[in-house]
Design brief:
Layout lengths: L5 E2 L9 H7 L9 H18 L5 E5 L2 H12 L5 E6 L2 H12 L3 E6 L8 H8 L4 E7 L1 E2 L4 E2 L2 H9 L5 E5 L11 H4 L3 E5 L10 E6 L1 H9 L9 H8 L10 H17 L1 H21 L3 E2 L8 E5 L6 H12 L1 E2 L1 E2 L8 E5 L6 H17 L8 H10 L4
Parallel strand pairs: 1-13, 3-4, 3-5, 5-8, 8-9
Antiparallel strand pairs: 2-10, 6-7, 9-10, 11-12, 12-15, 14-15
Helix pairs in contact: 1-10, 2-10, 5-6, 10-11, 11-13, 11-14, 12-13, 13-14
Length: 380
C-alpha cells in the first residue's frame, strides 16, 4: 500500500530530487577548469549559508572529519580548552582534546540543558584558556543555546577562540559567523545542506587563521594550511568528492533562491508546529531549550522505543531516530531541517497519532494535526 520512503532522522536527511539527479550524471575529472569554476561557485554559496566573508574549506569526509581538521589546525598540544559537555556529540569533542594532547576542562550539564553566556564567562575568568568548544545544536538532545550572547562574552577574554559545532544549526536556523564573532564553525553535507553524507565544511575567522599559522599540532590530510593554499586557485590539495560537490551546488542554489532567512523561517515554523502537535497529544519535549532543526520527544509510559519506531516504519514507512547514550529507549527524535516542508510535518504527526492509537494509548485523532495547523497558519 505504501510507496514513499519518508526519512525524518536528523541526519542523513532527505535529499531533493534535482540533487539526486545530479548525482546520477557521469563522473567528471576534478583537475579541470570546469571543476575549478564549480568549486568557486560552491565557495560563494557556502559563504552565504555561513553568513561570512571568510573562506569555507571543503573536506572530503563527515562532520567529524571537519571537526578534526578545524580542531587540530588551530589548537596546539598542551593548551587548555573549555568544552561545554551536554550531550553525545559534545562528549565526542571533549575526547578529541584528550586524544591530541590538549588539556580539557569540561563545563558539564545534564542532557537537555545548555550553557549560558554567564556560565561560560564565569568559567573563563580563571584564565589560561586557548579556546571554548561547544555544540550550537546538540543533535542527541535537540538542544540549542544563545550562541550570539556566548560569542560576545568569549570575545571579552582576549585571544580565546570560539569553536562551534554547527552541524545541525548552520543552514537550519539563525547562524551569523561574521556578525556574531565566531572563530571556527563546522558543518556536514548530510543535514541542512540537503546532500548525502560525504562532505564537511570548516570556516575560520582571521583570529583562527592566525592561530593556525602558529599551531604546532601534527596532522597531514586535515592540515587546513594545505587547503588554504589550494583554495586560492579554486582547488583542493587532495582528491575531492567532486560528484558530491557538483550535487551540493544544486542544493545550495535552492537555498539561495529561497533565501537563508526564508529557510530559517520555514524550519522554525515546522519545528514550532511539530512541538505544538506532540504537546496536544499529551507528549512531553525532552529539551529545556529546543532546537528548531530537530525535536526530541519523551516516550509516554507503556510505549517502548522498539514498538513505536518499528510501527512507524512498518505501517507508515516513516523513519525517525531513537535516543543515544543514556537516552536510548527514552526518547525519539524528528528532523525539521533541510528538504522538509510543512506537509512533511503534518504527515509525521498523523503517523504518530495512528501509531500511539495502535499501541493502546488514548488518542483523539486529529488533535496533533489541528494544533500544528494553527502554528503553520502563521507562515501564510
Amino acid at each position: 500500500m505504501l510507496m514513499k520512503y519518508r526519512l525524518f532522522t536528523p541526519g542523513p536527511t532527505s535529499v531533493p530530487e534535482a540533487t539526486l539527479l545530479q548525482l546520477a550524471k557521469p563522473v567528471t575529472h576534478h583537475r579541470t577548469a570546469e571543476f575549478r569554476k564549480t568549486f568557486a561557485e560552491l565557495q560563494e554559496l557556502l559563504k552565504y549559508v555561513f553568513q561570512t566573508q571568510q573562506t569555507v574549506y571543503t573536506i572530503t569526509g563527515s562532520g567529524t572529519a571537519a571537526f578534526e581538521a578545524a580542531f587540530t589546525s588551530v589548537v596546539s598540544p598542551g593548551s587548555k580548552v573549555l568544552n561545554v559537555t551536554n550531550g553525545k556529540f559534545a562528549e565526542r569533542w571533549a575526547s578529541y582534546g584528550k586524544a591530541f594532547g590538549v588539556q580539557v576542562e569540561e563545563l558539564k550539564l545534564p542532557y537537555g540543558q545548555h550553557a549560558t553566556a554567564e556560565q561560560i564567562n564565569n568559567t573563563l575568568k580563571s584564565g589560561g584558556f586557548a579556546a571554548v568548544v561547544l555544540v550550537h545544536s546538540e543533535t542527541s538532545t535537540a538542544t540549542t543555546c544563545d550562541l550570539q550572547a556566548i560569542a560576545k562574552v568569549v570575545r571579552q577574554h582576549g585571544d580565546v577562540l570560539l569553536i562551534v559545532d554547527g552541524i545541525t544549526s548552520i543552514g537550519a536556523f539563525p547562524f551569523k559567523f561574521d556578525d556574531w564573532g565566531i572563530d571556527v564553525a563546522i558543518t556536514g553535507s548530510q543535514k541542512s545542506l540537503m546532500l548525502p553524507p560525504g562532505l564537511g565544511y570548516v570556516c575560520l575567522s582571521p583570529r583562527a587563521e592566525a592561530a593556525m599559522e602558529k599551531n604546532k599540532q601534527s596532522n597531514f590530510y586535515f592540515d587546513l594550511k594545505k587547503y588554504k593554499k589550494s583554495i586560492a586557485d579554486s582547488d583542493t590539495p587532495f582528491t575531492p568528492a567532486n560528484t558530491l560537490i557538483e550535487a551540493q551546488l544544486t542544493s545550495l542554489r535552492m537555498i539561495k533562491q529561497e533565501t537563508i532567512e526564508g529557510v530559517w523561517r520555514r524550519t522554525q515554523g515546522c519545528a514550532a508546529a511539530f512541538r505544538a502537535g506532540v504537546k496536544a497529544l499529551g507528549l512531553e519535549l525532552f529539551s529545556q531549550t529546543p532546537a528548531d532543526s530537530v525535536t526530541a520527544v519523551k516516550y509516554p509510559s507503556g510505549i517502548t522505543d522498539k514498538d513505536f519506531r518499528n510501527t512507524l516504519k512498518k505501517d507508515h514507512n516513516i523513519h525517525v531516530a531513537g535516543g543515544q547514550g543514556t537516552m536510548e529507549g527514552t526518547i525519539f527524535r524528528v528532523n525539521h531541517m533541510g528538504y522538509t516542508d510543512i506537509y512533511d510535518c503534518l504527515a509525521v504527526l498523523a503517523a504518530i497519532e495512528l501509531t500511539l492509537k495502535k499501541l493502546g494509548k488514548p488518542v483523539q485523532l486529529g488533535a496533533g494535526i489541528s494544533a500544528a495547523q494553527q502554528e503553520l497558519s502563521k507562515l501564510f
